[in-house]
């Protein structure tokens, strides 16, 4: 046993070291058509509106990346349900899957009843992990940037620019797909606000309905090929990423990363140990703390709890190797660890899991 081995399994070091795990990518189910799977989120609170608007509700289609927004004065369950019914379901049909975070505006009886009536499956991300709903988070950021450029620090009527900013996002070509969300969804080139909108209508009328339908079908096939090619590239990229093979099973002991919103300077960054009680799939684990409270945590926020040393027994063993004279490792450990018995609380004793 050497210094490196002792420090690698030191309780204090483990709880404070920077533990970085490469994100594990999980393949999503095959998207059959637009608005098969959507993600919803809220932006805000945004202050300054003279009309009392504070939030932006956002819904993004995973197939086309097409985004729907609505400025609202609150994010109550009724407001979210009305947004889903009026702006999403009645215009694009009920999606098969709705993905959201664990906000109370989404996890409530009203929204759950809407999903139950329309046979919509709910998909909820792990707590304090917005990357699980990354597509919507990305749309939020881009739309907010466009609104900021339009209002130029004038927040009095920012809600009036939300539709324009959303339209600008939807007609912007995406680097990976080479087409805009508008083109993928509607199978036609978007008309810019400052262009002659009548020219396309005259062109469609002169070509005749049959010719226009043939061109539309050809364009749709092209869009399907683009989306399929992009998905294949994503799958190839997922195969190339070597995710960690250190997965956990039921009854494994782990440490849980403390969310940044709950961290303070000079405090431990890992809490535990916790016991894995259920493997949820797709990187999610349900863990229970020492008091029996359970929660679902993403894999990237977990690390395996090492078998901690019993300090006194180990030091006495090291000292006995050289006729009672402490070795270099023992001296380092005496300096590294707090030998005061009064500083060891009941919870710290519990954390020394096994010898």
Short description, anyone?
With 355 residues, the chain is of the alpha+beta class. It has helices spanning 3-8, 11-16, 77-92, 109-117, 134-151, 162-170, 181-186, 197-207, 209-240, 311-319, 328-336, 346-351, and strands at 37-43, 55-61, 67-72, 97-100, 121-124, 253-257, 270-281, 284-288, 294-298, 302-304. It contains twelve helices and ten strands.
Structural description of this entry:
With 355 residues, this protein is α+β, with helices and mostly antiparallel strands. It has twelve helices and ten strands. It has helices at residues 3-8, 11-16, 77-92, 109-117, 134-151, 162-170, 181-186, 197-207, 209-240, 311-319, 328-336, 346-351, and strands spanning 37-43, 55-61, 67-72, 97-100, 121-124, 253-257, 270-281, 284-288, 294-298, 302-304. The protein has two domains: 1-24 and 244-355, Roll (SH3 type barrels); 37-187, Nucleotidyltransferase, domain 5 (2-Layer Sandwich), CATH 3.30.420. A five-stranded mixed beta sheet has the order 3-2-1-4-5, sandwiched between helices. Pfam families: rve. Residues 30-189 form the Integrase catalytic domain. This is POL4.
């Amino acid at each position: 046993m050497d210094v490196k081995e002792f420090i690698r399994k030191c309780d204090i070091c483990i709880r404070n070291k920077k533990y970085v795990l490469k994100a594990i990518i999980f393949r999503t189910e095959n998207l059959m058509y637009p608005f098969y799977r959507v993600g919803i989120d809220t932006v805000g609170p945004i202050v300054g509106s003279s009309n009392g608007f504070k939030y932006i509700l956002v819904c993004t289609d995973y197939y086309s990346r097409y985004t729907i927004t609505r400025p609202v004065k609150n994010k109550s369950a009724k407001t979210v349900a009305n947004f889903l019914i009026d702006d999403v379901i009645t215009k694009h049909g009920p999606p098969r899957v709705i993905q959201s975070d664990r906000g109370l505006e989404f996890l409530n009886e009203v929204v759950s009843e809407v999903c139950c009536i329309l046979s919509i499956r709910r998909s909820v991300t792990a707590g304090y992990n917005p990357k699980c709903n990354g597509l919507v988070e990305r749309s939020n950021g881009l739309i907010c940037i466009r609104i900021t450029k339009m209002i130029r620090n004038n927040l009095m009527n920012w809600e009036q620019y939300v539709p324009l900013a959303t339209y600008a996002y939807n007609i912007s070509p995406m680097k990976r797909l080479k087409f805009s969300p508008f083109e993928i969804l509607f199978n036609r080139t978007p008309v810019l606000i400052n262009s002659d909108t009548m020219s396309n209508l005259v062109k469609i009328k002169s070509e005749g309905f049959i010719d226009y339908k043939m061109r539309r079908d050809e364009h749709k096939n092209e869009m399907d090929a683009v989306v399929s090619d992009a998905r294949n590239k994503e799958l190839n990229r997922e195969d190339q990423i070597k995710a960690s093979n250190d997965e956990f099973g039921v009854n494994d002991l782990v440490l849980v990363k403390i969310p940044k919103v709950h961290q303070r300077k000079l405090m431990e960054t890992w809490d535990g140990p916790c016991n894995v009680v259920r493997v949820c799939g797709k990187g999610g684990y349900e863990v229970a703390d020492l008091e029996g409270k359970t929660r679902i945590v993403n894999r990237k926020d977990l690390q395996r709890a090492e078998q901690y040393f019993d300090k006194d027994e180990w030091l006495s063993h090291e000292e006995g190797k050289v006729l009672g004279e402490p070795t270099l490792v023992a001296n380092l450990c005496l300096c590294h660890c707090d030998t005061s018995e009064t500083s060891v609380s009941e919870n710290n004793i519990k954390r020394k899991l096994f010898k």
